[in-house]
From TrEMBL:
Assembly and binders: Homotetramer.
Similarity field: Belongs to the beta-eliminating lyase family.
Superkingdom of source: Bacteria
InterPro entries: ArAA_b-elim_lyase/Thr_aldolase (IPR001597), Beta-eliminating_lyase (IPR011166), PyrdxlP-dep_Trfase (IPR015424), PyrdxlP-dep_Trfase_major (IPR015421), PyrdxlP-dep_Trfase_small (IPR015422), Tryptophanase_CS (IPR018176)
Official protein name in the record: Tryptophanase
Aromatic amino acid beta-eliminating lyase/threonine aldolase domain location: 47-422
Obligatory cofactor(s): pyridoxal 5'-phosphate
Pfam family, one: Beta_elim_lyase
Keywords for this protein: Lyase, Pyridoxal phosphate
C-alpha cells in the first residue's frame, strides 16, 4: 500500500480564506490588544485556535438537520440521540446541554459545594474555572511524565494513582467525585490507557467516590488505546469506547470535539442518584430536559456525528495529521510535546524562546509571533491561561509554556500543514526578535479569553 495516508473524505463545499499582509496583521494584532482571541476570524489565514465546534459537518449530518424536531418537550430528535448515546456509553441517563462548559456547570452546581476538592489528571480551562468559581479546589494529579514535553511515553495522560490515593486518604471528606480527562488537553492531548482508567475506577470505588470522565475526545483516546495498548490491537473502536465508559459513573462532554458538531454537549449518568438535582439545575440554566439548550436539528446532527467520529479510517488519518506536523517541526528543530496528541500539536515555547523570562509569557509571545509571521492563530496553554494574579500583585506561573495548534475536523488539507510548518520554522529563525508581553487588563476567572496586553 502507498505510504501516503490520504484524507478519508472528499470536499463538497469550500469557504474562501482572506489573505493578509504582515503589515496588516501588525495593525490587527495591536487593535486586538495583543490577544488573538480578540481577532476577527476573517483576519486569520489558518485558524487553529481550537478544534471545538470549528470542524466541517458531513453530508449525512446536514441531511439529518432537516429532520430536526423543534418541539419544546419530548421531541423525537431527543429520543433518537438518547438511544445513540446510551448505545455508545452504556449509561441510562442523558442530559443535553448547549456545550461542555454548560454540562460542567450544571453537574458541579448539583453535586459540589464550596470547600470541596476534585482530583483529575488535568483540568482544562473551563473545568477548572467552573470549579474555582464555586470555591472548589481543582487538583491536577497527572503522572510526572505528563509534565515533561520532550519525554516520549505512550500514555502521558495517565493519572498518578499513588498521589490520588494519598489525597483520598487525607482529604476524602472534601471529595464529591474523582475526574479524568480523555484525552488530556492541558498536557498535550495525551491519551489515558485503559489500564489506568480501570485502576482509577477501582481506587475511587475503594474509597466510595463516584468516577466522572470528561470525554470530549473519547474516540481519539480509544484510537490511541487500539494503537498503543497491548491486547486491543484487533478490538473495534466502539468496543474500546464501551469499555472505557463501563468504568465510569458519569461523564461530561463538549460534543463540539469528537461529536463532530458545531454546538452541543451533554451529561450522562449511570444511576439516578443525582438525576433530579441535575435536571432541576438544567431547567434553570439551559432549558427543558429534552432539549437542554440545543435545537432539535443540533440533536440530530450530533446523533450522526458521534457515530462518524468513531470511524477508524477517519481516526487513523486524524492522529497521523498531528504526527505529520510534528515530524516537520522536528526537522526545523522546534520542540513540542512528544508524542503528538490526537487533536493538536503543542509547541514547547521554551525551546523556541529559551532566554525569555516566564514573567514575559513566552508561550503568549510565540502565539503572537505565529500570527504576525503567517496569519496562524493558535492558543497559549501556559502562564496566562493557568497562572493567577494574587492579591498582593504577584503572579503564579504554569509548569509548561505551550502553544496549542488545534486542528478543526475535516477542514484543512496537507498544504495548509506544510505552509504552517514553514511559518513555524521561520519564526524559530527569528526568535531573537520576538517580544514578550505584559498584562494590562484581566478578569478574575478565565483571563486568557479577554485579557489585554502590551509589549514588554
Amino acid at each position: 500500500m502507498p505510504k501516503t495516508l490520504i484524507e478519508p473524505f472528499r470536499i463538497k463545499s469550500v469557504e474562501p480564506i482572506r489573505m493578509t499582509t504582515r503589515a496588516e496583521r501588525e495593525q490587527l494584532l495591536q487593535a486586538a490588544h495583543l490577544n488573538v482571541f480578540k481577532l476577527r476570524a476573517d483576519d486569520v489565514l489558518i485558524d487553529w485556535l481550537t478544534d471545538s465546534g470549528t470542524g466541517a459537518m458531513s453530508s449525512r449530518q446536514w441531511g439529518a438537520i432537516m429532520e430536526g424536531d423543534e418541539s419544546y418537550a419530548g421531541a423525537r430528535s431527543y429520543y433518537r440521540l438518547e438511544k445513540v448515546i446510551q448505545d455508545i456509553t452504556g449509561m441510562a441517563h442523558f442530559i443535553p446541554t448547549h456545550q461542555g462548559r454548560a454540562a460542567e456547570k450544571v453537574l458541579f452546581t448539583a453535586v459540589c459545594k464550596k470547600g470541596d476538592l476534585v482530583p483529575n489528571n488535568c483540568h482544562f480551562d473551563t473545568t477548572r474555572g467552573n470549579l474555582e468559581y464555586m470555591g472548589v479546589e481543582a487538583l491536577d494529579c497527572v503522572e510526572a511524565v505528563g509534565l515533561q514535553p520532550a519525554t516520549i511515553a505512550p500514555f502521558k495522560g495517565n493519572i498518578d494513582l499513588a498521589r490520588v490515593e494519598e489525597v483520598l486518604q487525607k482529604e476524602g471528606a472534601r471529595i464529591p467525585f474523582g475526574m479524568l480527562t480523555v484525552t488530556n488537553n492541558t498536557g498535550g492531548g495525551q491519551p489515558v490507557s485503559m489500564a489506568n482508567i480501570r485502576a482509577y475506577a477501582a481506587l475511587l470505588k475503594k474509597y466510595g467516590k463516584p468516577f466522572i470522565m470528561d470525554v470530549c475526545r473519547f474516540a481519539e483516546n480509544a484510537m490511541f488505546i487500539k494503537m498503543r495498548e497491548s491486547g486491543y490491537e484487533n478490538t473495534p473502536i466502539p468496543d474500546i469506547v464501551r469499555e472505557m465508559f463501563s468504568y465510569a459513573d458519569g461523564a461530561t462532554m463538549s460534543a463540539k470535539k469528537d461529536g463532530m458538531v458545531n454546538i452541543g454537549g451533554f451529561i450522562v449518568l449511570r444511576s439516578d442518584e443525582w438525576l433530579d438535582e441535575v435536571r432541576s439545575d438544567l431547567i434553570m440554566m439551559e432549558g427543558f430536559p429534552t432539549y437542554g439548550g440545543m435545537a432539535g436539528r443540533d440533536l440530530e446532527a450530533l446523533a450522526v456525528g458521534l457515530q462518524e467520529g468513531m470511524d477508524e479510517d477517519y481516526l487513523r488519518y486524524r492522529l497521523r495529521t498531528a504526527e505529520y506536523l510534528g515530524e516537520k517541526l522536528d526537522e526545523a528543530g522546534v520542540g513540542f510535546v512528544r508524542p503528538t496528541g490526537g487533536h493538536a500539536v503543542y509547541i514547547d515555547a521554551k525551546t523556541v524562546l529559551p532566554d525569555m523570562p516566564v514573567a514575559h509569557y513566552p508561550a503568549w509571545a510565540l502565539c503572537n509571533a505565529l500570527y504576525l509571521e503567517g496569519g496562524i492563530r493558535g492558543v497559549e496553554i501556559g502562564s496566562v491561561m493557568f497562572g493567577k494574579r494574587l492579591q498582593d500583585g504577584t503572579e503564579t506561573y504554569h509548569s509548561m509554556e505551550l502553544v496549542r495548534l488545534a486542528f478543526p475536523r475535516r477542514m484543512y488539507t496537507q498544504s495548509h500543514f506544510d505552509y504552517a510548518a514553514e511559518v513555524i520554522a521561520e519564526v524559530k529563525e527569528q526568535a531573537a526578535s520576538i517580544r514578550g508581553v505584559k498584562i494590562t487588563k484581566q478578569p478574575k476567572f478565565l483571563r486568557h479569553f479577554t485579557a489585554e496586553f502590551d509589549w514588554v
